[in-house]
TrEMBL record:
The keyword Flavoprotein does not apply. The keyword Transcription does not apply. CDD domains: REC_hyHK_CKI1_RcsC-like. It comes from Actinoplanes ianthinogenes. It comes from the Bacteria. It holds the Pfam family Response_reg. Transmembrane segments: none annotated. Residues 4-129 form the Response regulatory domain. The modification 4-aspartylphosphate is found at D59. This is Response regulatory domain-containing protein. PROSITE patterns: RESPONSE_REGULATORY. Keywords: Phosphoprotein.
């Protein structure tokens, strides 16, 4: 089964880095994933309406709002009939304990703080797609 990952990230360099790391990963569940990107909350919502995702890598600081609002929507919304709710990983440079707590309270399943090592990104994605 091909996993679908939605990367919600407004910084082009960060998107390129994630794509490069995941495409070169030696972990089957990462290498075989379909990666779709969105640069705003609006694009992310459109992508989520268009098809189910297994994992969302969600930047919390986006040009059109805070990613936590999307996490809250996903937590309370109904998933598509053929797929479970996606795992949401908050990805942010805001790494204070209260930021991590806010992300988890909003419905995020995990937290990855920027800057992160490529190995941490691969391990996080692989852990949630196994």
């Amino acid at each position: 089964m091909t996993h679908r990952i939605l990367l919600v990230e407004d910084e082009e360099l960060n998107r390129m880095l994630v794509k490069a790391v995941l495409s070169r990963a030696g972990v089957d569940t990462v290498r075989d994933a379909e990666l779709v990107d969105a640069t705003t909350l609006a694009e992310a919502r459109d992508s989520l309406r268009a098809g189910g995702y297994d994992l969302i890598l969600l930047d919390l600081n986006l040009p059109d709002g805070n990613g936590l609002s999307l996490a809250r929507e996903l937590k309370t919304g109904e998933p598509p009939a053929d797929r479970p709710k996606p795992v949401v990983v908050a990805v942010t440079a805001s790494v204070l304990p209260q930021d991590q707590k806010a992300a988890l309270d909003a419905g995020c399943d995990d937290f990855l703080d920027k800057p992160y090592a490529a190995a941490d990104l691969i391990a996080t994605v692989a852990r949630h797609l196994k």
